[in-house]
Amino acid sequence: MNNSLRSRCSLSSKARTARIKTLLSGVNRVPGALPLSTDDTVNLIKQHRRCKGSSRLPFLIVAAAYKAAKAELDGRVLRLAARNAANGQASELREIQIRLVGDDKTVTLCEMKNKAVQRSDIDRALQKIAAQGKHVQNYIFISTEAVADDIREYARSKYDETGGVEIAILDCIGFLRHFLHLFHRLRKDFLDQYQTLVLHESDSAVSQGLKEAFLALRQAAESAD
Fold first, then answer.
1. Is residue 23 within 8 Å of residue 216, measured between CB atoms?
2. Predicted structure pTM score
3. 171: how many CB neighbours lie within 10 A of its CB?
4. What kind and span of H or E run contains 81?
5. Quick one: 199 exposed, middle or buried, by C-beta within 10 A (0-12, 13-18, 19+)?
6. Residue 182 neighbours by CB under 8 Å, 6+ apart
């Protein structure tokens, strides 16, 4: 890389960092301000998901929820472990494993789907559980699409067959709304965790524009009368 190109890349990086810093200064700028309501928080996330290139966001939504609530669940801290796809691409990250601290057994697996869940997805999940040889109490699909009744029934039917492994299928926004009502006082913690995850993602997974969009949307929502 010649000096001229290196200089332009450096300036571009500095400009991107400066833009993020400026937008961050507008978030939480009123000390002691009332947190956004659950509905306003959900609407903010829905607006962000409507932005271009948002396929990575459902995973971050769920990860942020669990991180925000980890101290509240059973009064014990939960550890999140994420697994890359076979090709090692971080942008393909689609699974959250939740383990109790001090326990090597997996309690819950969450898998993200940017499409409707099919029977074949449920069958593969059961194969994955059997292959791992670990105790799984819940396997949760969180989808960006509506869930068909016959698919819900198929998932429900596996409970007895597996000796107590519960397969659940939730839509992403429905999951978030339920979470924020259940852990109402953590709604700001959720947004802070989500913001941190969004900003820390590589630009290949969450673009600079998508990062700036969230900060601008949050600033507008928090500034609204």
1. yes
2. 0.77
3. 18
4. strand 78-83
5. middle
6. none
Task: Spell out the residues 6+ positions from residue 97 whose beta carbon is closer than 8 angstroms to its own.
Answer: 80, 81, 82, 83, 106, 108, 109, 110
Q: Give the separation between CA 121 and CA 95, rounded to whole angstroms.
A: 13
Dihedral sign for Cα 221, 223, 224, 225, please. Answer: positive
Q: Chain-centre distance of CA 159, in angstroms?
A: 26
Does the structural domain 55-223 have CATH classification 1.10.1200? Answer: no
Distance of CA 3 to the CA centre of its chain: 40
Task: Return d(Cα 113, Cα 144) in angstroms, integer.
Answer: 7
State the sign of the Cα–Cα–Cα–Cα dihedral 137, 152, 194, 180: negative
Task: Say if residues 106 and 136 touch (Cβ distance below 8 Å).
Answer: yes
The residue assigned the tokens 């014990």 is 76
Of the two residues 125 and 72, the one the predictor is more confident about is 125
Percentage of the chain lying above the pLDDT 70 cut: 77
Q: Please classify residue 3 by burial: count the beta carbons closer than 10 Å to its beta carbon, then call 0-12 exposed, 13-18 middle and 19+ buried.
A: exposed
Contact 108, 98 (CB under 8 A): yes
Query: What gap in Å lies between CA 30 and CA 20, rounded to an integer?
Result: 19
**pLDDT band at residue 99 using 50, 70 and 90 as cut-offs:** low
Mention every residue, 6+ apart, whose C-beta is less than 8 A from residue 93.
56, 59, 82, 83, 84, 85, 205
